[in-house]
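>> received
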Amino acid sequence: RVKHVYSAAQRGGGVVTIEFEVGEEMGASLVKVNDKLDSNMDKIPPGVMPPLVKAKGIDDVPAVNLTLWSKDMDGDSVPDVDDGQLRMLAHDVLQSIKQLPDTGSGFVVGGRREQMTVEVYPERLSGFNISIDQVAQTIKKNNIELQAGGIESDDSRFNVTTGAFLRSADDINRLMVGMHNDVPVYVHDVARVTQGPEDAKQLVAYYTGKASNLDIRADGVPAVTIAIAKKEGSNGVTVASSIISRVNKLKGTLIPNNVAVSITRDYGKTADDKVSDLIFKLFVATGFVFLLVLAAFRAFRPAIVVVLVIPVVLLMTIFSAWLMGYTIDRVSLFALIFSIGILVDDAIVVVENIYRRWLEEGKTDVATAVDAVREVGNPTILATFTVIAALLPMGFVSGMMGPYMEPIPALGSSAMLISVFAAFVFTPYLTMSHWLRPSMRYLKTAGEREHKEAERLERMFRRVLVPMIETPSKARLFRLVMWGTFLFACSFFYFNWVAVKMLPLDNKPEFAVVLDMPEGTALPVTANLAHRMAEAIRVHPEVMAVQVYAGTARPFDFNGMVRHYYLRQDPWQAEVQVQLTHKGKRAESSHDIAVYTRRLLTDMTEKLKRQKRIPAGVKFSVVEMPPGPPVLQSVVAEVHGPNQAVRHQVASELTEIFSRTESLRDVDNYMRDPYKYWRFEVDTEKAVRRGISVETINRNLAMALGGAPVGDVKQRAGHEPINIVIQVPLAERSEVTRLGDLPVHSDSGITVPLRELGQFVQVTEEPIIYHKDLRDVEYVVAEVGGKLAAPVYGMFQVQDLLKEDSYISPDGVALESFWLGPPKDDTTSAIEWAGEWTVTYETFRDMGAAFMVALVLIYVLVVWEFGNFRIPALIMAPIPLTLLGIIPAHFVFFHFGAGGEFTATSMIGWIALAGIIVRNSILLVDFSIHQIQQGEPVVEAVIQSCKTRTRPILITAFALVAGSSVIFFDPIFQGMAISLASGVLVSTVLTLIVIPLGCIKASKDLVEVAAATCPAGVTMKSYEELMPGGTAAAMSSAQPKLVADSPPLWIGVWGKLITIVTMLFYFVRGIVLLLMQLFRKKPSREKGAPAADNASPPPSSGSGGAGGADRVVAGLAEVAPASASTPTAADAPARVEAEPAKIAAQADAVDKVSGATRQEGVASEAPELVAEAVQPDMTASGEPAAEAAQSEPTPKVPAKAQPKAKKRPSTLKKKVVKPKAVEAVTKSAVGVNSAVALEAGDAPSRSGSAPAKKKGGRRGIRLKG
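>> returned
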């Protein structure tokens, strides 16, 4: 898949760049490109060379650069080794390095090639009536060796070779070119043959900086640079280390003592330093978490149990990274550091609950610990999956940022899955182990201490919550203040108090200055200005070394590969590479030094321009290595228009507007400045009369200027051929008029001076033609700077200046801007914004979509767990409140100049925080539901949940802060740390207030969920006792159809879309459960047993008040007592014990399928219907259970304490488990009351005692509806 096609065409050639979609295989893509070119070769004009296809990818970027430069050992201020010798030495070193495993492509930059130069003199050629073409043909024809064949003689075969190669300058000098006056003319008669470096076409120089640790000072000495890449998939640290080790061994042997080797790039060491630093931070974060848990539990044993989970999870996560194909790099290590703060949450919850249950039971036994783990199993698993649901969608971000950030969601989700496994397997085992099991003395002491803390928390929550519960105006005021503060925090973006950008600049070990002189500038002039820049930069105290590359490109990095810096080979182009000391030894960041350098060089060039010592068209830009995916430039305006003249004028005027923009730096455009070049215009009439073709003239002139090698000499095995180059001396070439004396051989055998065949004229060079996706375009580019160093702000400022100037394009229209794609056509002028903005938009767009998907997944998960559609909305309410901490925290960092831009990593932290903060809400709501099931009123249950769950919630929050604190000042992932730490602190505090208030407001739904999930054997209180004052009465005395409260606006907006998807999912799930019930094998009914569905219900006595609910509870609660009074119960205690739970589970499953009816309302007759449907099967004699209960009031008696009897041993069993009775119950009872009725009966316990009130969080049998 091709994303974009770019092209740049100029006189004599062009470049077409094909950009593929991220993730395309390079090999397959190259095959497709070559196949497409081959199938269209017939369309290429005659005389055009076949296209050359070269692939450039991330693995082509050199990982190690070695700069060889000459020392001055004899002290004569002249380097001992010239650049030509350095180039030959560099090739020998490169050949030795390539022998190492996993080394990729390598090349040498700088130095002059060795060649055999034949300098012909036009005057001598004219005197001997010989042309330069004749000299070239003589050399070519005498530099041939041929395998002619073979002969056989005396039983042997001998090969016959004819001819010989030229091997030295003497061989060339002895060649006879022709005859003049019957005298042989040799090459040495008309030319001077020398062997040595070619004429300088490029220049590479090395300078030591003020921070250099070398004993020798280098002041622009000749140098060459060896660049070596690594193979795809290999370990960059290992490859770089092996290369440097090999070079050190070559010193003193292959590399002489008068040649120094400087490592000017070592990505292996950079990666190793970053990985080592992050591993250290990993241990620091683990230590912070250990201290936090130690402070929370105030004992070493629980802290050790919790912290031991961290290495287990991390090692298993690293193993999963290996399975998924991820490497241990900077981003993957950040994913592990991010996970540390949350992977201990499950272990903390498990340990805290085991300790609490041991304290309640008064013994540290295994059974209690297992049951304690079971208690927190469902909410812990749900909370873990909410975090995974928040992380996983981020793995589908498109563009170049997708693969860059992919390890965070992948490894974060893997760590969360492994952490919940470790919490349920390793944590209980370690907690119950002999060495780490706490004593009861410690538990009692801790329990007393926690009881006091809990009492203080309870008093605090009562002081905070009760006034807002009792006085609705206070609650409304709180909500008004909270949402008002939320809107005010969001306004920080509008007022530019917090900047938004893709990624902040990293603290890199290098940066570069890219210099562009006016087109046509000679190499010495370019090198002179680059030398001035290097001298100015090297005096900075934190600059280690500087390299100058004039007329050639420095070894490209990832940024240079995207910007095509490796194509900068013109003599008016140069680059200055600045190498800094290690970031640990620097007081300033690389960005600060780059800003200083830009200011320094701007002042210097402006001064030189005023003095007219350099041309006015000099441009330069300070290029820093991007922290993320590189782009063509930070700000790019692609200019579209009806024709080239209009586009050029718009681009020129837009460049001037860019230069006036506050946030833009290094403004430039891709238009070529007009400049002159020499063209020899052939007088074809004269040439034809003299018998000379245009092709002959072109060939002779090309050889005279040194642009056409005529062969090579075979001297030794070398890495580069020694070409034979014919040219006129530099003095002749410097003055174009003297080339007119060059003789050209005609068909008649005479030579004609070049001036008689035409003339030299100066012509203006044609502009470069740019296309993008086959549409004509011009580029205006700039870098960003200042306080708001993000592209979008500079773009807005350009838009404002266009409006202020009332800019009208040359074709008479207002310049329209397109942000998300090109204009539909090019009939009118327009600009398309590109560059870093495109990556920023695509990344934040995909992350926003991932956030929406995460919210939907979290909502579905919570609906699945609670079986209600409003409770999940309540649980997710604190998600937007995280911005109350995130945005102000970014503002504080940004205001004090410590970074703080809201970046893509900030967005990642916010999305991850959504799953984490929902975890806290689930703990509060789940505990409130348990308390309601135990008979606590809603208000009291909510306060108790805050009192009990505040401690683990706070531990979770501070663990996340401790884990993220180690990356607060990392340049790239600072935004994630700020989002996680500030967001979790503020939202945790607000969650402890918002969730309780929301639970009170959604009391009806809370009670419904509690009733629907009530475990068998637990009797819930009536609605009047559970609901806040007046709510239950109004609910029970209302019409059968209940009217739902109006949801908040944000629930209405998001809930519409979410509910459609969730209802479809929930409906399908209900159908599956119903089919399971239908196909389940039913037990056979005993002959003569009355069928519940045939019983005619007595007339209803009314609705409302406590009567309906009381009758429902009473009708079912009499099952166990009535059965206990009969002698039949003792024969089958286990069956009696299990059947009520089975009935409750079956009824609960079927009742959840009819959840739509429950939402419509509860009929007032439902309690009587339930009671009447159950009553016929309550006694063995067949009389209604209510009458039997009145005649035989029997207290609840434990099953084992019942007297044994032999009468009707099986009646109770078959009456209780009768499927028809269950079906009658579920058909007759609608809404929540059915769930209350079916699950309210007390089941006999295994211990033989009466059913006791459930302890906090214990659910018994739990089936999801």
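>> The chain has a mean pLDDT of 78.
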